[in-house]
Amino acid sequence: MTAQDFELVIGDKNWSSWSLRPWIAMKVAGIPFREAHIRLRQDDTKAQILKHSPSGQVPALKWQGVVVSDSLAICETMADLFPEKGLWPDEPLARAMARSAAAEMHSGFVDVRRDMPMDIINRYPGEGHSETALIAARRIVDLWRGARARFGAKAARDDGFLFGRFSVADAMYAPVVTRFRTYGVDLSALGDDGSAQAYMKAVLALPAFLEWEAGAKAEMAERA
Length: 224
Prior knowledge:
The protein has helices at 17-29, 45-50, 71-81, 92-107, 110-115, 131-150, 168-182, 195-204, 207-223; strands spanning 6-10, 34-37, 60-63, 66-69. By secondary structure, the chain is of the alpha+beta class.
């Protein structure tokens, strides 16, 4: 398959956390795609999205005349189409836990998303640290630590990610990594033994993430 087979419709890279998820999964896996950008927070944003996706939301994957909506659904589609890319762990127990972690991010942690919205290029240390957001953040730190200790550090190939090599689970948590950086969350105060911090460094050092970050800076500079 070539880049002409897939068109990924995304929102502004500085803010669109749901767009980052399938985008970084496909980039890390080396799956080619064309990128369509929708500028968010404009009067016509909804109308522009509806030209691409009946859900009225980004991201959306256009493929073979259909539109696959939702970040996790897009990631699952890529994993199905490209099993050789290893977007889920091979070992059944690790794969089950990676799916569980991804699903928990997909449906939960509302307080973190509300109080610490993704903002790639800015820094707001101390802001958004509501009691409920920090409770959710502690759960995330525990999840990261547990995955790294039981699966990642023991994987046949350990690249520093939750289950060893980069997976859909990491794609789902990549925006959270940026949130913790933006809002200066003290991971050690949430029970981190250093493994969650090391995991964040691995995500932030990914060439694919650095490409996304550069895109966010460029887009925001155009808005200035």
